[in-house]
Automatic annotation (TrEMBL):
Keywords: Amino-acid biosynthesis, Cytoplasm, Diaminopimelate biosynthesis, Lyase, Lysine biosynthesis, Schiff base. Pyruvate binds at T48, I204. One of its GO terms (molecular function) is 4-hydroxy-tetrahydrodipicolinate synthase activity. It comes from Streptomyces boluensis. This is 4-hydroxy-tetrahydrodipicolinate synthase. Its EC number is 4.3.3.7.
Amino acid sequence: MTSPFGRALGAMITPFDAAGALDPDGAQRLAAHLVDGGCDGLVLSGTTGESPTTSDAEKSTLIRAVKEAVGDRAAVLAGVGSADTAHTGELARQAERAGADGLLVVTPYYSRPPQDAIEEHFRTVADATGLPVLLYDIPGRTGTRIEPDTMVRLAGHPRIVGVKDCAYDVLGTQKVLARTELAYYTGCEEYILPLYAVGGAGYISTVANAVPAELRAILDAFDAGDTAGAALLQRLALPLIDLMMANGLPGTVTAKALLGALNLPSGPVRAPLRAAGAEMVGRLVTAYEAITESSLSRA
């Protein structure tokens, strides 16, 4: 399986300053930190990056800042999805001008278009630039699945190269893997090893904001033939994954809370999101310390 943007991608938060304004310097520091920690690529302005509450101008500024910070050391992908095909196309062109290496395009949300309209939407956006495109399948958020047969048809487009998979349908994913050359990146950290083992390309992870090296180690162990070690590393990561992604708070909130506690660039979340409480921050730090201490003991 090819990995057009590398294997270990971080779904990067968007750092804000104390007043809630975009913090380009903080974004550059965090981006460099994540790449130093093992991220092959960074996805900006996704769900984790608070794309619904950042302006088009802020999105462009963020791309330029991060691209300047990481250069050719990592791929920089821009989330450009919206519920409006015309606006999504304009965001795609804006991202290309700002220097993005690829695009992440989510299914149009809320309006719940049928499959033929979804297919036309993605083709229109893919035709808007010369950049490679990842489709983002997350029906729990959008209300609409990109069905496997639709994926297979879209795989014929020369610039649609892969999928960020949050559909929780391993059978459907394997059907597409068997019929196409699309690169599948799991967006659900509990599937890092399972999807990789059946031919996935890697992951796009919110949890990687905090533990980029520890998640990459899962893939490295599997590639080295140490399947038992890879499985152990996946299990060691689960408490932090569970706390950050499945404990009632959005991953953006938990990631920013943990990064702030670690003195890494983060800042507040924008309304309607609300900051994590002190008790949750303490639990996040404890889980973080457990996984990083386990990694040190294995080194």
